[in-house]
Amino acid sequence: MSAVDNPILTIDGLSVKLPKGADRSHALNGVSLAIAANEIVCVVGESGSGKSVMANAIMRLLPGEVAIDGGRVLFEGKDLASASNTEMRKVRGAGIAMIFQEPMTALNPLRTIGDQIGEMFEIHTELSKKEIKARVLGLLADVHIPDPAQAARAYPHELSGGQRQRAMIAMALALDPRLLIADEPTTALDVTTQAQILKLIKELQSRRNTAVLFITHDFGVVAEIADRVVVMQHGNVVEQGSVKDVLTNPQHPYTQQLIAAVPPLTAPPPRALSDDIILDLASVSKTYRNGGFLGRGVRVTHAVKSVSLKLPRGATLGIVGESGSGKSTLARCIIRLIDPDGGSILLEGKDWAKLSRDEVRRETQHIQMVFQDPFASLNPRRKAGDLVAQGPIVHGTPRADAMAQAEELFRLVGLDPSAIDRFPHEFSGGQRQRIGLARALALKPDVLVADEAVSALDVSVQAQVLKMLYELRERLGLSIVFITHDLRVAAQICDLVAVMKDGEVVEHGLAGEVFGNPQHAYTQALLASIPGGDFARSRVPLTA
Amino acid sequence: MRILSLAGRRLAASIPTLFLILIGVFLLLQFAPGDTVDAMMAQMGGGDAATARELRKFYGLDLSIPMQLGNYLWRLIRLDLGFSSIYGKPVATVIIERLPPTILLMTASLSFAFFFGLLLGVIAARGVNKWPDTLISTLGLVFYATPSFWFGLMAIVVFSIYLQWLPAGGFEDIGAVQSGFGRTIDIAQHLILPTLTLGLIFLAIYLRIMRASMLEVLNLDFVRTARAKGLDETRVVAKHVLRNALLPMVTLIGLQAGTMLGGSVVVESVFSLPGLGRLAYESVVQRDLNTLLGIVFVSALLVILVNFLVDLLYARLDPRIQAEG
Questions:
Q1: Looking at CA atoms only, how far is residue A71 from chain B in angstroms?
Q2: From residue B111, how far is each of B172, B195, B199, B215, B269 by CA, in Å?
Q3: Rounded distance, CA B189 to CA A145, Å?
Q4: CB atoms within 10 A of CB A260
Q5: Pairing of strands A299-312, A277-290
Q6: What is the predicted ipTM?
Q7: CB spacing of B229 vs A92 below 8 angstroms
Q8: What are the tens digits of pLDDT across the range A98-107?
Q9: pLDDT above 70 as % of chain A
Q10: Most exposed among A100, B58, B155, B261, judged by the fewest C-beta atoms under 10 Å?
Q11: Which chain A residues touch B226 with a CB distance below 8 Å?
């Protein structure tokens, strides 16, 4: 046990059993930790480390087949692990409150925000309807929602992601709980919103003396918010200590490995760029219209507004921006998954913006895309080898040759060639993203468009995939358009960076210059919002 | 208001469909051998060819088929459903006389199926894979797999003939002239067995949909949020799960309104209810084209009306509809 004075919550040797047939027998193996009042403890770990299971185990919200099978959870002197359901219900919400990762799905879509926050008072207090209403408005004002009265009347879909998470926090803090469990509360948010929410949590925590158990996979967030850090791996606590000790002097090899994998914010020294422009975008535009009937009440969204960019042969162009900035629309325009409204996209002298559907199909071998979600972007009913070989076969390669190539590609992206007979679900997320990459490379493209290709991956896997991209780029002379919302990732791999906001490129140039000396106010704001910015900047860039 | 205009637009869009259906039914009936006059002659006990020719001329049946169709549609536009030669009354009058039993039967069956489907679905989902779930799911399968006419006949055998609790058929007791409350009770008694017969199949469908939809919603994040707030299971289900799980059920009502009208033909025949379904069957047998087309028209209107109401209800239940429009 670590020495913590006056702990609010003490977890002592907590074990959680997984159902038969899971990849391991226990989600948690004798986890012990303690949290004192007025303290933010970050639990860090990659997916599958058991950090979310621990949060749900404290609240006894585990799914049916997953059960606590040992240890104690002491909260205000009571063991929650053995408390009755009725006792638990009194603790939930009032004593320990929880906020979740995805505020859209964590709120009931059919009830108003005010109604859902008010429910906290309805079940735990005897307040009158009028008092509840006043309290709800007070809470919404506390979390700095612009118009509390309107937000209380709104349904979840009518608020932005950041406001939804604010409402969620207001709900969690309604009854002044002693402990707040935050399960990846900023992961689904944009970087500027994330910075605001982190600030809000910190502000509320110090004002109300709430203890916070903050679960995250992001060391930047840890550096930003934590007082103490607990590192978890495979259901075990491998290291815990003050944030300064763990970040600057990690003891356990796994912690060292995790911290080494955090992408630094400083760009590697610039490489020499070729003068030969392979991809030349000139005033590309895309406008969406929807909601109208016979021209009435049309909502016009300018997703991409007159974007002009140049990609030299062999270089990597990063397009960064928050959600809704139009970066994915631009990527889809480049490979003509959607048709741009105007402008030209010159690839090897051909204007892709004007090719017919048939021509696009024939030309796709020159430009290929890697998608964000390695789970959704591979057909679950086809074998990995077939998925990779499909492209060449469609373009006329005999099946046997294509399969042989697929094996070769598997080796190239660091997978076992004998795995071509396995189905996508038999691979891990990182391996699947490698398959996605092999699939894109199968057609020997000149340009690779990677749309958030590493965003869904854990940091250590992310670092491996990035390193592989780095190597492949050197080996195959690939030119890459790399789309990401994560500036740290962009800093690491891109030669050139373009920052997009509301469909426009607000700033572009060499990565080192954009990150080192940002000119546009928005770029500056983005860089300032990166959690644990100083920590990220202090680290040395990765070299291949 | 936005949703009203949306639903109104859908209403307008169903008018061409309505005409297509009417034209289709009209043409289909031309392929059937014999016409109204043949049926009338048979009722009269036969007659000579000259009388038949006279009658055909009188009813406009000697015209070419496109002319007859044109005449019919033109009258329809003026909201005139025509004259039934078999019943000797305007078709509109015939249909209005027969409409109440069918509407009563449909509303009662639908409410019965919806309410108990919902209830049983919730119970099954709450105890998933335990004995209540197994029992309810098996019963549902039995109801779904059994033909409704057989249910009807067995219900008559057990409750009307053997136990003598309920009347075997008809809409009300013709022997005793009753008024007011007594009549209501009498009609309700007559409708119990038909309602159960028609409702059971739909009950089975609703309960399966409700069970599946409950199980899905119970796994959603906001249910976990609700539990994390300290709500007990009953409140979690009543306040958070139920309304979300109801959405697919409501969609289903609109889809099944038509099926239910079709099902009422069988049930009305088994329980000799003087409703729209039986009328449709009789008009086919008697080649009473005007009445049949009138029934098709009115049934289509009913289905469209139900769907309109379902649209409004759905928009009331789901605030996201208005935004997406």
A1: 21
A2: 21, 10, 8, 23, 21
A3: 59
A4: 14
A5: antiparallel
A6: 0.78
A7: yes
A8: 998 888 889 9
A9: 96
A10: B58
A11: 108, 119
